[in-house]
């Protein structure tokens, strides 16, 4: 493990990739080039003559100014054979492109970067990338190659343009599908976690320096330095502890609120799921493999990603091995749920069906009960249902009535559902969640962060209890606890890292990012 990733890198290859999505026919495609030879490569592309060394006087666009330029390529550009490619000095126009230069270190990667905003057609993109491939074979041996997955961002990290939490924020932003995922990712990419963890780490390191002074000067130094440190470390420990007690809000926003639909057979679970899935924001998928699969629907519920799973598979025990797998999966979906949607046939509220799922359901998970099949029910049955709900301790008038067949009550149900989802994340019944936005609090978004923060808390506690309070530890061993706490926080931001961790973080990226 290195205490710094600011290693001196050997001269880097210049890399290139299509950085915009690889869709068939986009209006614009962005090809990004990064590395010490970015300008040399650009000079070749802007030069109409196929010469080994383009006119060094050829005017490059001003830094960070968009410039409309013709890009040229060797006529035999489909060939990567060096000899063939350099026959004659004629070139053809590949495209008219907007060209931008970002000289390092003021660029995304910290290196010289060139962006080519070309027309988005497949032929244009491949003509330009083929030309870049051809330049690899150039007699001047420009060290140019296609970028690997996440390599632009990895360079940004290695050149100190981003810390690991910002890298993760960027990965999340690229894959964000809902408003809240976007907001969360944007804040993280903006450095809110980096600032928080760096400041905690700096405070611990300051305390360590004080302790080390005591060690160095032995008993000559009075205990004042240690005494002054105690409240500081206690406050810090309290802050870190509050940070982890967040109901996994950030992780849930990031990965989606897991909602399990439960209820008696034929209550209408699949019908409700289908009704919700018909909404434009839904994607239906099934966990592959069995006939009794758990069906998952991904919904955008008022800006929050929701993964709704139908646990229709939870029925009586079965001899059928395949069905048994389905049952296990359904039980797992229920165990993983952040919220339970309990569907009840309004005509069958006699208790047994109402209690059917309560055995499997844990107290910590919220439940939304919805009465279905109102189109078939009598007034009397609805009264019985409402009374049963009150027996179960629910507020009068809070019942939700729907008919999956006619669609009656679906809007009211949807808005109640939205409120519950947002409450789950922000304990806020107004359903706006704006306090989350306004809050300067940075939230944990990954298990990776949580593990390190918890380890840091453990070390701080050991130092406070075993050394400051009980005096059970010798000073030098106690200091190790502080060092460990600082190191744990440093691992979140990547100040301290191993290659393995980097590989895991960067595997979320695709080529061009
Ligand atoms: P599940 O076993 O809980 O998933 O229940 P299904 O969604 O498969 O529904 C069972 C039966 O009830 C099906 O025949 C549905 O068409 C029917 N059904 C579901 N919801 C309603 C409703 O609101 N009104 C009526 N009349 N029938 C419904």
From TrEMBL:
Keywords: GTP-binding, Nucleotide-binding, tRNA processing. This is tRNA modification GTPase GTPBP3, mitochondrial. It comes from the Eukaryota. Residues 256-422 form the TrmE-type G domain. GO terms for biological process: tRNA methylation; tRNA wobble uridine modification. One of its GO terms (molecular function) is GTP binding. Transmembrane segments: none annotated. PROSITE patterns: G_TRME. Pfam families: MMR_HSR1, MnmE_helical, TrmE_N. SUPFAM superfamilies: P-loop containing nucleoside triphosphate hydrolases (SSF52540), TrmE connector domain (SSF116878). It comes from Porphyridium purpureum. Belongs to the TRAFAC class TrmE-Era-EngA-EngB-Septin-like GTPase superfamily. TrmE GTPase family. GO terms for cellular component: mitochondrion. InterPro entries: G_TrmE (IPR031168), GTP-bd (IPR006073), GTP-bd_TrmE_N (IPR018948), GTPase_MnmE (IPR004520), MnmE_dom2 (IPR027368), MnmE_helical (IPR025867), P-loop_NTPase (IPR027417), Small_GTP-bd (IPR005225). Its main location: mitochondrion. It is found in: Mitochondrion.
């Amino acid at each position: 493990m290195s205490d710094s990733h600011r290693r001196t890198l050997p001269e880097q290859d210049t890399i290139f990739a299509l950085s915009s999505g690889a869709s068939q026919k986009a209006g614009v495609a962005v090809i990004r080039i990064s590395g010490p030879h970015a300008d040399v490569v650009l000079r070749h592309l802007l030069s109409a003559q196929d010469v080994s060394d383009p006119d060094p006087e050829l005017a490059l666009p001003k830094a960070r100014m968009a410039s409309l330029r013709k890009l040229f390529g060797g006529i035999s550009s489909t060939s990567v054979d060096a000899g063939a490619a350099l026959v004659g000095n004629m070139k053809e126009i590949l495209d008219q492109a907007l060209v931008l230069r970002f000289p390092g270190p003021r660029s995304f990667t910290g290196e010289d970067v060139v962006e080519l905003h070309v027309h988005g057609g497949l032929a244009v993109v491949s003509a330009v990338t083929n030309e870049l491939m051809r330049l690899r074979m150039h007699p001047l041996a420009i060290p140019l190659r296609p970028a690997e997955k996440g390599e632009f961002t990895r360079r940004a990290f290695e050149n100190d343009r981003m810390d690991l939490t910002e890298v993760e924020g960027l990965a999340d932003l690229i894959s964000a599908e809902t408003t809240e995922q976007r907001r969360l990712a944007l804040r993280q990419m903006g450095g809110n976690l980096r600032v928080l963890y760096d400041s905690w780490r700096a405070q611990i390191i300051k305390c360590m320096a004080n302790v080390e002074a005591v060690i160095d000067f032995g008993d000559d130094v009075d205990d004042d330095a240690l005494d002054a440190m105690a409240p500081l470390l206690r406050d810090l420990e309290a802050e870190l502890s509050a940070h982890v007690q967040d109901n996994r809000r950030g992780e849930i926003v990031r990965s989606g609120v897991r909602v399990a639909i439960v209820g008696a057979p034929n209550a209408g679970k699949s019908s409700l799921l289908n009704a919700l899935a018909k909404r434009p924001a839904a994607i239906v998928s099934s966990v592959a493999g069995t006939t009794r699969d758990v069906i998952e629907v991904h919904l955008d519920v008022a800006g929050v990603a929701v993964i709704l799973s139908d646990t229709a598979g939870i029925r009586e025990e079965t001899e059928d091995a395949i069905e048994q797998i389905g049952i296990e999966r359904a039980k797992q979906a229920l165990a993983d749920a952040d919220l339970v949607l309990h569907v009840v046939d309004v005509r069958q509220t006699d208790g047994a069906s109402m209690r059917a799922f309560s055995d499997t359901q844990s107290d910590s998970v919220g439940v939304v009960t919805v009465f279905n099949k109102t189109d078939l029910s009598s007034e009397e049955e609805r009264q019985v249902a409402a009374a049963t709900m009150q027996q179960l301790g629910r507020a009068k008038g809070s019942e939700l009535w729907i008919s999956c067949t006619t669609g009656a009550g679906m809007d009211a149900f949807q808005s109640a559902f939205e409120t519950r989802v947002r409450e789950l994340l922000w304990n806020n019944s107004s359903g706006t969640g704006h306090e989350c936005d306004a809050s300067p609090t940075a939230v944990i978004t990954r298990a990776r962060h949580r593990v390190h923060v918890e380890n840091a808390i453990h070390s701080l506690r050991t130092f406070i209890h075993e050394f400051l309070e009980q005096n059970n530890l010798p000073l030098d061993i106690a200091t190790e606890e502080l060092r460990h706490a600082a190191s744990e926080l440093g691992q979140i931001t990547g100040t301290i890292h191993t290659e393995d961790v980097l590989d895991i973080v960067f595997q979320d990226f695709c080529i061009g990012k």
